[in-house]
Amino acid sequence: MINQERTMKKKSITLGLLLALFASGLSFAQQTGGTTNTGGTNTGTSTTGSGTTGSTGTSGSTGSTETGTSGSAGTGTTGATGSGTTGSTRMGSGSTGMGPRESGSMMVGKESMEKFDRLNKKGAEAVAAIRPTSAKLSSADQALMLEVAKGGMMQLEVSRAAVQKATSPEVRQLAQAEVEEQTGLSAKLKEIADAKGVTLPTTPDADTQAMVTRMQGMSGTEFDKMYVSESGVKGHEKLDAVMSNVKKNASDSNLKEVEKAAHPLVKTHLKVAQEVMTKMGGSGSTGMR
After folding, report:
1. CB within 8 A of 235, min separation 6: which ones?
2. Is 45 left (phi over 0), alpha (psi -120 to 50) or beta?
3. What are the DSSP E strand ranges found in the chain?
4. Is 66 helix (H, G, I), strand (E, B) or coil?
5. Residue 14: exposed, middle, or buried by beta-carbon count in 10 A (0-12, 13-18, 19+)?
6. CA nearest 174: which of 156, 159, 153, 154?
7. pLDDT of the chain, 289 residues: tens digit per residue
8. pTM summary value
């Protein structure tokens, strides 16, 4: 009986030791093996910076990625978080590589191209705003309208030739402005004439045709000087005189509106043409008024 009790105690002690050893081994395994979920496999977060780029901006460099190392015991060291270098935010210039606009750098006479364009646009808008009436014209007013129409048609035809043949950019700009001015004025005169039952010429007269033919036989600097002298200066002096006559003597409201809208631009073109002529070695004036 005593021997059986001793045997049972030995078995209990042995079983307790085995359970203790098992529990100890399980704890050790948890400490050493269980760290894999937080140790070396933990990868740092990478941030890739990208610079905001204009036409010359640069993109940011890619951030480095660091991997955490496994702890020898206990919890593994968490991998370091790599941070990408933030991309440069230097903006590109946005420039297209183009030089300054011609209208901003070029001069026509003593006016900047920008101001010259603005004056031409203002004149064109004033002419376009005229609203024709059906009031009949007196014979004197009809004669005045015919003078304006004929003078404008000569300027238009000669300036069209100059746009094609002039070699000086300044002369071409002057001619182009004249084409646009006289095209708008001619269209408005036709509207007024139609409303009042008046017929205006639709083709250039003999003097205009002769002038165009003469200029077509010229080229280079000779052509440029001829155009500026005959159309730019003399042509505008004649138109200036016609417009002054309309202002003084016209009775029709539409004719008065034409003078008020168109005359300032005629004076501007005359002034600029004189300045261009002076640059080219001419007198800039014929003495006509």
Report:
1. 151, 154, 155, 158
2. beta
3. 107-108, 111-112
4. coil
5. exposed
6. 159
7. 555 555 565 656 656 655 555 555 544 444 444 433 333 334 343 334 443 433 443 333 333 333 333 333 334 344 334 444 443 333 333 333 333 334 447 899 999 999 999 999 999 999 999 999 999 999 999 999 999 999 999 999 999 999 999 999 999 999 999 999 999 999 999 999 999 999 999 999 999 999 999 999 999 999 999 999 999 999 999 999 999 999 999 999 999 999 999 999 999 999 999 999 999 986 554 443 3
8. 0.62
Residue 156 C-alpha from the chain's centroid = 30
Q: Would you state the torsion angle of the CA atoms of residues 189, 194, 198, 202, taken in this order, to the nearest 10 degrees?
A: 60
Contacts of residue 259, Cβ cutoff 8 Å, sequence gap at least 6 = 243, 246, 247, 250
Kindly report the backbone phi and psi dihedral angles of residue 208, in degrees, each rounded to the nearest multiple of 5, phi listed first. Answer: -65, -45
